[in-house]
Fold this protein.
Amino acid sequence: MSAFPDISKIEYEGPDSKNLLAFKHYNPDELVEGKAMKDHLRFASPYWHTMRNPLSDPFGVGTAQMPWDDGTESLENAKHRVGVFFEFLEKIGIDYYCFHDRDVAPEGATLTESNANLDAIAEVLESYQQSTGKKLLWGTACLFTNHRYGQGAATSPELDVFAYAAAQVKKAIEVTHRLGGEGYTFWGGREGYSTLLNTNMKRELDHLAALLHMAVAFKQEIGFDGQFYIEPKPKEPTTHQYDSDSAACLNFLRQYDLMDHFKLNLETNHAELAGHTMQHEMRVAADAGALGSVDANSGTEFIGWDTDEFPTNIYGTTTIMLELMRMGGFTTGGLNFDAKRRRDSFEPVDLFHSHIAGMDTFARGLKIAAAIRADGRIEEFVTDRYSSWDSEMGARVEGGQVSLADLEAYIIGREEPTIRSGRQEVLESIFNQFI
Ligand code: XLS
Ligand code: NI
Ligand code: NI
């Protein structure tokens, strides 16, 4: 039985279409820079928002209508939901999905019971993947909802909580491997602190690194070759999250000798909470060779919460696509809509409207980014801005071959250095010409 009986497969109808259930810009097989849109964008839908988010807020109950869901935590209900999710993926035309262990399968009274539930659901996910060709972009473990993780999982002051988390991660990696996941994400959940008055930060960070090293060892042991990601977020739920932004994550990975094993999964709303643009976060990661995947959402500018909205800002998606194309595109990663409908968009059809909005906004961002690249003026400007470094002395400085005294000898007797305009407004205008 269909969960969305009135909705057929969403098709591309072009920019002039008035059909709300059609793509205006996302045309999966259309080539951009010689590559199909769907391969540039690699869209994924997050099980936790799409299937499990009731659309509640701190002041009110859930509003989402889910006629297919009996509202219980039974295994039968969980199995049934999987079918609904795959019907959604088929109709919206998204090839990938992401999940947390506890979103797809109910937590049992014991870890053994929870693991058995997860295995039962993995079997269902596996068979739907086989029959539909849909793929798992990444899996993850929910190490933040249960009360035991209230003061952290890998960074809990309690050894037994750490052990519980380790066991849960082990199982979640196993299941991700079984489902052919192309990656596995570690989002810090409650890995951070509420107050330093009760916190041994050094010890907590050492423990977090220890867990990640164990995960690397386990991955190798079972032959899982998916990519590991860390997802930075500065705050919420904790006051300070250890994985606060790209730079902090890279520093952590380098300090604990984990750089070879991890890339970053960057989320737009988290960048915003950190006081950065997403472009900044992506540039920092990409320049370190560590930009892996993207949680494609956005926040409301003035709210200061992780509101996980669908991305509908064309300027934003254009900068994201520019950064991605600059690094040569995704390998294992993709654009996972870690986004939920607004509380007032509670009808099942709003799942489609919201994904269509996000997908079309990214398709436009992709096309605009390609046009900006083809135009080339912005890139040429940057190349030219640094052209003095292409001199012999520039090369020697960059190659670490000169001393302060060498530069003193070089500059003495020369004229006062000339500098040129940064032309920010010109560049912004060029950018806007393509929006
Ligand atoms: C929460 C995070 C989370 C991760 C996966 O803010 O974005 O949803 O993407 O655990
Ligand atoms: Ni996320
Ligand atoms: Ni988030």
Notes: The longest strand covers residues 135-140.
